[in-house]
Amino acid sequence: MGRLILFNKPYGVLSQFTPADGHPGLADYIPVRGVYAAGRLDHDSEGLLILTDDGRLQHRLTDPRRRKPKTYWVQVEGEPSEAALEALRQGVDIGGYRTRPARVERMSPPANLWPRDPPIRYRRAIPVSWLAITLTEGRNRQIRRMTARVGHPTLRLIRWAVDRWTLAGLAPGEWRLLMLPDRPAAGDSG
Questions:
Q1: Cβ neighbours, 10 Å, residue 40
Q2: Where in the chain is the domain with CATH 3.30.70.1560?
Q3: Which of 21, 28, 42, 163 is catalytic?
């Protein structure tokens, strides 16, 4: 049986086991050997990180041709107009690359959301909004670049879901181990 770990990566933690540049790594939270991250989150992003020892699953989750959906909760500066949201939905140029269409919806601030450490800078004169953005690709700092492109910089970025797995029930720094069913080897008829 393969193993799959759902981890709620806190702000400031690297998506690798080894700490670096003053940032803790996954080994500071997950005492399981032989699992590897299926994708990554920047140190200043939070949320769902999947780790597995199943190479085929890891490939399926990260191969851009498979277009596995990833949903993010995004706190942005300001209140995006419908035109800005539609631009995000259709795809925007983020410096030499036009993003694929995305699902973008306004959302209420997430209920029971944990505080971020350090907290988001509060500015009374500038409102904030929350968006749910679902992508089927994952360029470097893509959501931050997309929201900045339409005039609403990202203040906080939380990955809520990858494919069918979500953060439900996981506080920052917590993880859950799931056992994967055995699969027939390549070429087996089972």
A1: 15
A2: 69-162
A3: 42
Taking CA atoms, 150 is separated from 13, 55, 141, 180, in Å, by 28, 37, 15, 41
8-26 in b/e burial notation, b at 16+ Cβ within 10 A?
bbbbebbbebeeeeeebeb
pLDDT one-digit tens code per residue, 84-137: 999 999 999 998 899 999 999 999 999 889 999 888 887 778 899 999 999 998
Active site residue 42: yes
Burial pattern 49-86, b for ≥16 Cβ within 10 A else e, equals bbbbbbeebbeebbeeeeebebbbbbbbbbebeeebbe
Q: State CA 20 to chain mean position distance.
A: 21
Is the CATH number of domain 1-65+165-182 3.40.50.1400?
no
